[in-house]
Amino acid sequence: MNELGAKYVAPSAEAARTREAVVKWLNDRAVSLAEIAELVYEIQKGYISGLTLRDCLESVERVLEKREVQNAVLTGLALDILAEKGQLGEPLLTMLREDDSLYGIDEILALSVVNIYGSIGLTNFGYLDKVKPGVIGRANNQKGKKVNTFLDDILSAVVAAAAARLAHRARDTGLEKKFRPA
Ligand SMILES: [Mg+2]
Question: What's the rounded Cα separation, in Å, for the pair 26 and 151?
């Protein structure tokens, strides 16, 4: 057990295999787990005593072992890739290629990841989706060259979920930083 009380339960062989596929798909879209972990650290460091990048990377890995997360990542990235190759029918193809702001299913799919860790996850997701820091902004800025309609929301959701997971664990283990009024 580490300081954040992460009693490690090894994933099943199937979950581990699917996680490897998820990591490979993300890498193929030029996203590393280290970059995702950096954003988790940035949004959570003010709230947890002694938080390390390693804790954040571990949290991202645990989140990516959950089946509903794996399914959301694989589904979203598959749709981005198919749209990029022009292999979807109209009018869906154009909506995805142009990241139509009224499409909305990219956010809905991402919420299936965010909801796992409750309302802290939802608040984090809203912030990340608006500010688009780091790798999320990079994914969003590739518009025109790549189709990343689902990727930016998926990344925001994974960061939000990994951060919310740490927040719950910090409360449980007494590592939560106490709010001090100015
Ligand atoms: Mg999007």
Answer: 9
